[in-house]
Specification:
The protein contains 2 helices and 9 strands. With about 150 residues, the chain is of the alpha+beta class. The strands form 2 sheets. It has a 6-stranded mixed beta sheet, sandwiched between helices. The protein has a 3-stranded antiparallel beta sheet with strand order 1-2-3, with helices on one face. The relative contact order is 0.16. This is Type I restriction enzyme HsdR N-terminal domain-containing protein.
């Protein structure tokens, strides 16, 4: 797997048939190690270990619907009231972050209404604070740390 622009973590990779599996601490099971999953697992550990988010507030591949279509979010972090706080879309390292990717996460967020949206391919990370009244996306230098006091 590619070296990423995220802190390293202790991961457990096993082989099952033709697939490599990585242990997911949130789902508490091994999942197929794809390039996108590699980025997602790095970001999960970054959120928990570097930014202080509790595991209990992070959801992986949560189902949502938009225009009657079923969609799945890569990562959704909830606030203490159970409302979406941060929506994160992960892409494989070889996938560039384009306007289409930004549109994808923004579309998902029209339904979820998270305060923050972020996109990462493991090498580049972008985060915005969303103002739903003005429909403005304010770019942030980094993903905000956990602070739900």
């Amino acid at each position: 797997m590619d070296a990423l622009n995220l802190p390293p973590f202790d991961y457990k990779v096993t082989k099952s048939g033709a697939n490599y599996l990585i242990y997911d601490i949130l789902r508490r099971k091994n999942v197929v190690l794809t390039p996108e999953e590699w980025v997602r697992q790095h970001f999960v550990h970054y959120l928990i270990n570097a930014l202080g988010y509790p595991k209990s507030l992070i959801s992986i591949e949560r189902g949502t619907s938009y225009n009657k279509l079923q969609k799945r979010t890569d990562l959704c972090i909830y606030n203490l009231e159970g409302k979406p706080h941060l929506l994160l879309e992960c892409k494989a390292a070889h996938i560039p972050i384009t306007q289409e990717v930004v549109k994808q996460v923004s579309t998902y967020n029209q339904t979820l209404q998270a305060k923050y949206v972020a996109i990462s391919n493991g090498l580049q990370h972008y985060c915005w604070q969303v103002d739903f009244e003005t429909r403005a996306y304010q770019p942030l230098a980094e993903v905000p740390k956990y602070n739900f006091e």
